[in-house]
Amino acid sequence: MFQGLRTVVYPAGDLAEATAWYSRVLEQGPYFNEPFYVGFNVGGYELGLVPDGTPDGPVGATTYWGVPDAAAAHTRLLALGAQPHEAVHDVGSGILVGTVLDPFGNLLGVIQNPHFALPA
Questions:
Q1: For the chain, what percent of residues have pLDDT higher than 70?
Q2: Where is the VOC domain (predicted)?
Q3: Which of 52, 90, 99, 120 is deepest in the core (most CB within 10 A)?
């Protein structure tokens, strides 16, 4: 039985560089940092990095990380070295999404959803 999203894992050709970049993006260091895996706790969910090279390009599902201001988060990611992929836009009912490519070729999404609240 599914219990909910736990972890998204991004490959990185240079694990140390990816760890440093995501530490700046998340404004925190990883809670787990080993040569085979780096894990960050992001609001009770996990962003993981593995040293398995780089992706062939953004394919498959997109993981969106919740943010209070999608436009500001998207702009900040670009300022930190991400490349534009999809500008922030309203997908309906005030839900704003946008995506960037991190410096390692992974698709990184942000979502501002006024209808979603974490369970208490």
A1: 89
A2: 4-113
A3: 99
